[in-house]
């Protein structure tokens, strides 16, 4: 059992926690309780519709995602934080997307793996709390467990849920990572915002390339480009491949068109600085990487976890959608007999897009 408010000044400790979080680089930190029962019906409906696709872990954990105290017994308060990630010197997203010969990678993936960055900072925050009050029960989460992190952040007052399902903040937009520190401390909860601020805007729905946002606040992951290029392990459905364009790892379109992201803040964290020119690389250049180059250059990157075959699969789709050129055709021809069946399949499709029999 952790300390309760009879043993420590909860208000003072909460203020210290937010101050320490800011010193660690978090843009915002807030505290909420563990009751997410209001979100259970929506979560169950989403799972029942099959919108989670092949992400079986979401169905496996079921409603535990909305029950932090079941996930980590003894949890009484959740410290929710966010950290901006847009690198300061990255090529403009719109310019890269407009050039069909370029490879677009979601801006969160251009630097170091955010899981490690946020987990380290949150663990440091936990250590500072422990230095102040002594041992206490806690667990760090960074997109790493069955937890409704957006709902926790919304409930803590860090923002509101946009129609694209991401958290929005009036001062920071949505280009930030969320993280949580589950604790057994009885801390005073922050209130949610009194109102949402999307109004009648539907830009995220209207501009989604694959129409994955099937209605406000509901995403069908099976159509989402982020899911297709990251989570999906097998073949990308042929009908969706032309809609992916040159997006080879993730997709930012719903964020790029959101009016609130005119307030998006650039990160000065060196961990999120662009590596290996990934912000403005050509499809042909990346498709030519050997497996050894992929493993070396993307070590410590979130892209690393999809593996070399899926990396090539995604690039092949991008090349299939690229303007025809001798360089594009040569790149595809060089891998038409790849040892991996998944790669061969997508290369054959890409060649057919350029009028060449696979």
Largest sheet: 4 strands, antiparallel
Class by SSE composition: alpha+beta
Cα distance, first to last residue? Answer: 63 Å
Low-confidence stretches: none
Globally, the shape reads elongated
Helix content: 25-40%
Mean pLDDT: 95
The number of helical elements comes to 16
Q: Looking across the biggest beta sheet, what order are the strands in?
A: 1-2-7-4
Topology pattern, helix = H, strand = E: HEHHHEHEHEHEEEHEEHHEHHHHHH
Strand content: 5-15%
Overall description:
This protein has about 350 residues and is α+β, with helices and mostly antiparallel strands. The chain contains 16 helices and ten strands. A hairpin with a 5-residue loop joins strand 5 (about 160) and strand 6. Helix 1 packs antiparallel against helix 6. The chain starts with 9 loop residues before the first helix and ends in a 5-residue tail after the last helix. About 40% of the residues are buried. The model has no long low-confidence stretch (mean pLDDT about 95).
Q: Could you name the key traits of this structure?
A:
358 residues, iron, Leucine-rich Repeat Variant, alpha+beta, oxidoreductase, 4Fe4S_Fe_S_CS, 37% helix, elongated, 10 strands, four-stranded antiparallel beta sheet
Element layout with pairings:
Blueprint: H1 10-23, E1 28-32, H2 40-48, H3 56-61, H4 68-71, E2 77-84, H5 93-98, E3 104-105, H6 114-133, E4 138-141, H7 149-155, E5 160-161, E6 167-168, E7 176-183, H8 203-207, E8 213-215, E9 218-219, H9 225-231, H10 241-244, E10 247-249, H11 253-256, H12 283-287, H13 291-297, H14 307-321, H15 326-333, H16 341-353
Parallel strand pairs: 3-10
Antiparallel strand pairs: 1-2, 2-7, 4-7, 5-6, 8-9
Helix pairs in contact: 1-6, 14-16
Subunit structure: Monomer.
Binding site for [4Fe-4S] cluster 1: 198, 201, 204, 258
Binding site for tRNA: 233
């Amino acid at each position: 059992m952790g300390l309760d408010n009879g043993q420590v000044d909860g208000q003072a400790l909460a203020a210290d926690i937010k101050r320490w979080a800011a010193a660690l680089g978090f843009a915002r930190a807030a505290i909420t309780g563990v009751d997410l029962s209001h979100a259970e019906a929506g979560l169950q409906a989403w799972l029942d519709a099959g919108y989670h696709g092949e992400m079986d872990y979401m169905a496996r954990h079921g409603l535990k995602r909305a029950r932090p105290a079941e996930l980590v017994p003894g949890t009484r308060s959740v410290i929710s934080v966010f950290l901006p990630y847009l690198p300061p010197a990255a090529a403009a997203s719109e310019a890269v997307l407009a050039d069909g010969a370029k490879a677009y990678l979601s801006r969160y993936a251009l630097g170091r793996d955010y899981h490690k960055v946020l987990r380290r900072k949150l663990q440091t925050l936990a250590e500072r709390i422990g230095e102040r009050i002594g041992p206490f029960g806690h667990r760090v989460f960074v997109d790493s467990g069955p937890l409704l992190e957006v709902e926790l952040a919304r409930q803590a007052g860090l923002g509101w849920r946009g129609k694209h399902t991401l958290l929005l903040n009036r001062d920071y937009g949505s280009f930030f990572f969320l993280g949580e520190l589950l604790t057994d401390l009885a801390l005073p909860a922050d209130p949610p915002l009194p109102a949402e601020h999307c109004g009648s805007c539907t830009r995220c729905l209207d501009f989604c390339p694959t129409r994955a946002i099937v209605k406000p606040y509901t995403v069908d992951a099976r159509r989402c480009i982020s899911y297709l290029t990251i989570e999906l392990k097998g073949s990308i459905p042929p009908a969706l491949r032309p809609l992916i364009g040159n997006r080879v790892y993730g997709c930012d379109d719903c964020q790029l068109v959101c009016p609130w992201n005119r307030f998006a803040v650039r990160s000065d964290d060196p961990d999120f600085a662009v590596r290996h020119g990934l912000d403005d690389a050509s499809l042909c250049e990346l498709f030519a990487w050997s497996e050894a180059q992929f493993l070396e250059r993307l070590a410590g990157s979130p892209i690393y976890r999809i593996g070399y075959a899926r990396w090539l699969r995604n690039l092949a789709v991008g090349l299939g959608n690229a303007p025809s050129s001798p360089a594009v055709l040569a790149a595809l021809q060089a891998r038409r007999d790849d040892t991996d069946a998944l790669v061969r399949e997508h290369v054959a499709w890409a060649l057919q897009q350029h009028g060449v029999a696979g």
